[in-house]
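Figure S7 source data.
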Amino acid sequence: MRIHYDEKNRLFKLDTDHTTYLIGLTPEGYLGHVYYGRRIGNFGGAYRLRIEEAPFTPSVNQREKSAFLDYFPMEYPTGGIGDYRESCLNVRNEQGCMGAELLYLSHTMEKGKPGLPGLPASFGSEEEVETLRIICEDRVLGLKAELMYSVFAAEDVITRSVKISNEGKENLRLEKVYSACLDMDNEDFEMITLHGAWARERHIQRRKVGYGKQMVSSFKGEPGHQEHPFLALVTPDTTQEHGEVYAMNFVYSGNFIAQAELTQFHQVRMVMGIHSEEFCWKLSPGESFYAPEAVLVYSSEGLGKMTRSFHDFYRNHMIRSPYKYKSRPVLINNWEATYFDFDTEKLLAIAREAKANGIEMLVMDDGWFGKRNKDDSSLGDWEVNEEKITGGLGELVRKVNEIGLKFGIWFEPEMISPDSNLYRKHPDWAIQIGGRENTQSRAQYVLDLSRCEVRDYAYECVAKILRSAPIAYVKWDMNRQLSNLGSARLAPDQQQELFHRYVLALYEMQERLVTEFPDLLLENCSGGGARFDPGMLYYSPQIWCSDDTDAIERLRIQEGTAMIYPISTMGAHVSDCPNHTVGRTTPFATRGQVALAGTFGYELDITKISSEDRAQIPEQVAMYHKYQELMQKGDYYRIHSWNDEKPYDCWMVAAKDGSEALVTYVQVLGQPNERSRIISLKGLLPDTDYRLEGTKEVYRGDELENCGFLVRDVRGDFQSRLYHFVKEENNNLTI
Ligand code: GLA
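Tokens for the predicted alpha-D-galactopyranose complex:
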């Protein structure tokens, strides 16, 4: 068993292979956070609750309750009764007063892990995961809170989620329900978050945690380009290999908050959950509310270990797609090739040339439906534009298949253009505040998916097309954020449920899609990478990482993304130069090697690029297939970072059995008066010989790790190299 309860000391102990998480109970039943860190052998640590120290618990010597509440390391703090730090649960009663107090009632432990109704959630077999539920109650409200902890031992992950049930007689209003909290002593923590903008997603940011609250958040209806539902607190000087890391990542695709608060008593409270801005959930007697899952990783071996825990966890316990470990057809997408200006002939010309160069699938992007010749109309009118696609979609797919390529298609099902037949017929289907001019973004509104008939319509539009022809792939896009929150169907006291209901509806639609079309390869997308989160990975094995396809800009974007997510999930394409977003020209080989650290595909007009570039495509496609399994299943190591002011970037993927490793080195800018560089490799077997493919050079694993590998002869800007090390079958070559 990985979960234990010590009755005598009233202590829960959760063990992964390398970590321990301890929860304690006070005599009154407050649930306290005792410890999270390196694994410890037996029960202990209860003294860390410090209930004998001032400020004492209220029942022992009648000290003021508020002094206790504002100090005690709460496992799941509630608002309104005297803990002035950030709360996780705010409940308002029918009299309009806000306050809740949770005390322990009972607990259960089980093998396996139940799902979360309507929400994406990690999963595992009875051998892989165990679950503890601690049930607490507020007797005054008749409210029960079930705190769920699941222990994934091998990946060193603990997931948390919360179920709130109204077992009383009055309607309650949940004004805040976060998913996780960690109260810790101050370790001079620094916080690592991911920030960005359109075309600049998930750059790594590191800063010191100061007194007060520091957070990243979104109330855009999706995580957004700007901030990310991830927070890591690290001890000072933490590197890839050293230091302590407490990380949380949120399995949710809507509004979020991730916050660290340094308090007057020098404690740190770290929380994660649905943002409370514009959130309120009416909970009638007999009803329950489920807060989404938060994924917790502790590493005592730096950020690299954290990264590999997340990667293994998402690969083993979150992504369900049959494509997870499969070769995915190398695609060519026509977006940057043609934008809206295409027809059957153009697409077929691209398809023919693509086939001749080894590409395996054509994806028709935005612009094939309604009268959409630019981005200002037709969202909602999902009927093929036969002026462009002569003979209809079935005919196009047939011809593309005949050429020998699979066919994929773009949708943006959640949207409605003011200039669309759908809007003219159902103006009330758009999210809007009655009587107020609605706000357009990219000339579009958002469909009110909280309404059944609206999501049925949107789903059926997609499904009808997919039923009509052999379509192998869908890119599901979402190109604006939510504003003017108002639903024509929701009662006034439920309007603040719209943000969350929208996300639940999105999940319901995607669940229907993957159930009806189990062999479909689904790629999620949101104006580039604004909805790249573990929730979406539950439905699609890959997500478009960014609209920025420039190989050099991608270094930072992919480094930040790969800090959490497996590289096989990052949509990455080779595009044309000068790059459409930044105007930079990089070698075609570099573009290919950078895209190899993602799903790998093309986004260019193959009929127009130079013959020298085109000639490299067959080799690049072969390169993808050669390394696909290693990239999908291997261990990722960040070796150097351009982000750290280095003039170069370097990462590697090592097979879990140590049989091979692929190192990617990118010199961003050439440097004058420089020598070769030594890079230290990771993840190799120390006493094993490795041959550098294509050469006679043989190295020992420990030599490559400690003495390092010499990167020689890289001259010029934007140059990249791949080094493939393969275990020598005969391991006697070196002394
Ligand atoms: C978004 C996507 C792009 C492309 C366009 C089409 O921006 O990220 O890849 O599909 O929409 O409008």
